[in-house]
Write a sequence for this structure.
């Protein structure tokens, strides 16, 4: 499956703010998702009250490119499954990235399953196997991680991660 998603809007472009529902049993294999702000193998950005279960991305390249090409760190997010999990009660359960490469060029957060996990969002039993996560900016202004590039919880609005596994990774 060859794919190019302009402006980082992959299979499901953007879940509207504060909408409700679920997505399950999604499988994406092969190809590339490339864009310039919220980039993910399945979702670019989500917020509201959603649950995603049994989502797998395999042999996928996710690339977030700074359109300014100015060498500065920008608010760019690249994740294996989701680029940005916004405020709300969003849950990813049993989501997996396998044999993937996730790259943030002058990016801000780059993660194996999610780039940015915001307040009240949850990752349960997610995993990544043979995933490479990288950001090419040599500054302290970016975050990379095998679970998530960045998690942003607050008192009263925490982020939850439970049961994550990673194997044969590199950062």
């Amino acid at each position: 499956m060859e794919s190019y998603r302009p402006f980082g809007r992959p299979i499901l472009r953007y879940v509207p703010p504060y909408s409700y529902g679920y997505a399950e049993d999604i499988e994406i294999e092969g190809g590339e998702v490339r864009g310039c702000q919220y980039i993910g193998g399945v979702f670019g950005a989500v917020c509201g009250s959603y649950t995603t279960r049994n989502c797998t991305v395999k042999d996928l390249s996710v690339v977030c490119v700074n359109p300014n090409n100015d060498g500065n760190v920008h608010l760019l997010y690249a994740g294996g499954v989701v680029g940005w999990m916004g405020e709300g009660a969003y849950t990813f359960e049993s989501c997996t990235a396998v044999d993937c490469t996730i790259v943030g060029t002058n990016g801000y957060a780059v993660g194996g399953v999610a780039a940015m996990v915001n307040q009240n969002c949850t990752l349960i039993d997610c995993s990544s196997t043979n995933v490479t996560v990288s950001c090419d900016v040599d500054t302290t202004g970016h975050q990379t991680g095998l679970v998530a590039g960045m998690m942003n919880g607050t008192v009263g609005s925490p982020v939850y991660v439970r049961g994550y596994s990673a194997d044969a990774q590199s950062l």
